[in-house]
Write a structure and sequence with these properties.
By secondary structure, the chain is mainly beta. It has 1 helix and 11 strands, in the order βββββββββαββ.
Length: about 120
């Protein structure tokens, strides 16, 4: 069992930056691929970014490429999502996810999810 707790959301102006954190507890953190999803009001949850267990491979949605980065600190059981050049369309609840496989995680079929953190980008 893995428990995921996100933090770092908030209100930011367009063009600004935020860094989300996701702290994991439970089973060995380094054994999981980690990722971020988001869900805007009235829309389905969508994939944002993922990182492999060792951190050597990252994947991003086209909508955030070049603006967002994902990293992990296995010693701190934490995965980060650095969001730069934020746009109004980035407004959503952001969820952290964990899975044994990056492919399963990216498909949104993770067994473990956090409770979400709200990100609001104002014009």
């Amino acid at each position: 069992q893995v428990r995921l707790v996100e933090s770092g959301g908030g209100l930011v102006q367009a063009g600004g930056s935020l860094r989300l954190s996701c702290l994991a507890s439970g089973r060995t953190f380094s054994g999981y691929a980690m990722g971020w999803f988001r869900q805007a009001p009235g829309k389905e949850r969508e994939f944002v970014a993922a990182i492999s267990r060792g951190g050597g491979r990252t994947v991003f949605a086209d909508s955030v490429k070049g603006r967002f980065s994902i990293s992990r600190d296995n010693a701190k059981n934490t995965v980060y999502l650095q969001m730069n050049s934020l746009k109004a369309e980035d407004t959503a609840v952001y969820y952290c996810a964990a899975d044994d496989l990056t492919s399963t995680l990216q498909a949104g079929r993770s067994d473990y999810w956090g409770q979400g953190t709200q990100v609001t980008v104002s014009l």
